[in-house]
Amino acid sequence: MDMIKEKVTSDCQKAFQLCPKFEKTFSILGKKWNGLIIDVLLENGTQRFKNLVHSVPKCSDRVLVERLKELEQVGVVDRITSTDSSLIEYRLTTKGEELAPVMAAVHLWSDKWCDAEDELRN
Fold it and tell me: What is the pTM of this model?
């Protein structure tokens, strides 16, 4: 019995070696507004801040700035500053663009399992 327990404990420890990456991924994607910001940039390409504000209307400007900074820090979003004007735009990095199949899968899952009426009631 002890050998089985040791084997299970050993296997669990091996399995949990990947957990920090998985946890990190969900700390990025699971944070409120991040998925929507990524989705907007996937769908519409490079965006000015004011366009993102209109695309994510329930998110305050302050929180949107925070989320964009966080996504920039983890290498998902690039902040592009024009040298000849005060124009600032945001675009997905290659790392961010590679989330396209993940976001497509989330759309398929939500179309199948989420009821828009539930959201309206909450």
Answer: 0.79
